[in-house]
Write a structure and sequence with these properties.
The chain is mainly beta and 104 residues long. It is 0% helix and 59% strand. The strands form two sheets. Strands 1, 2, 4, 5, 6, 7 and 8 form a seven-stranded antiparallel beta sheet that branches. A two-stranded antiparallel ribbon has the order 3-9.
């Protein structure tokens, strides 16, 4: 997996909140560890596809040009099947918190 933060900045007008913008590439046949974020996550798929698994929800498949949302502190992961996925991910987080918290 390739993961690069492109921007981290305070969100003006929303105390103790920051925005993190990342470029994420996940190779084929890869599952990320289950985790959650101290904020909301918005993803735009640039290329490829992936399946979003969210605790207590039906799986969702995202392809090129799709946009997805993961709610505040929702336990989730993504999985790629036969092709890689490349996304731009925007997170609106509580300032000073880790970007992700892994779940056993």
């Amino acid at each position: 997996m390739q993961f690069a933060n492109l921007l981290t900045t305070q969100l003006v007008g929303a105390k103790d909140t920051e925005v993190v913008v990342s470029h994420v590439s996940v190779p084929p046949q890869t599952s990320l560890p289950m985790h959650w974020h101290p904020g909301e996550e918005f993803a735009y798929v640039l290329d490829g596809s992936c399946v979003l698994h969210q605790e207590g929800e039906e799986d969702l498949t995202f392809r090129k040009d799709d946009v997805g949302v993961v709610p505040f502190k929702k336990v989730h992961t993504i999985e790629t099947l036969d092709e890689a996925v490349t996304m731009v991910v925007f997170r609106v987080h509580e300032t000073g918190q880790p970007e992700r918290i892994l779940v056993d």
